[in-house]
Amino acid sequence: MAGSPDDDFEQLAPDAGAGRRPGVSRQGPSLKARAIGYLSRREHSRAELQRKLAPHTNPDDPAELTRVLDELEREKWQSNQRFAQSLVHRRASKKGAAVVVQELRRHGVADDDVAAIHDQLKATEYDRAKAVWQRKFGAPPADSKEYARQMRFLASRGFSPAILRQILGDLDDFLE
What we know:
Layout: H1 31-41, H2 46-53, H3 64-74, H4 80-91, H5 97-106, H6 111-136, H7 144-156, H8 161-168, H9 172-175
């Protein structure tokens, strides 16, 4: 993505490569330097790093990207498990299990890791949803309109309908 904070690397002028070996056309930092720059800002999944680094790959050596990513994993600079835990830490206090799991899958985290994290999140979903509700509202809804508003708010954060009913009670209480 052009103009993103992750692409703030110094670019060399097109003629700055004069004197290089013929056939080498890369400008700017190496793939490994770019990857380390991305990882220094926050954890990234392997798939995410691959997507970000692909435009900077040397077209004459497409396997270079795989070699760099393998090296980063070998040296423990990149870890999908660490990325998953980081994402859970950032998102779980505000979002439900469904949203966090969807984001993990979108970033290419392995299904086994996603299933384990989903089980952990489900075990604490009521407490997390209650804390989100308490911060936003703090008081039970006074009428059915307010009930619907609070339900929509929590549902938009990815909390399950069963959890919402536990926190807010049934709509029947507000229709009487």
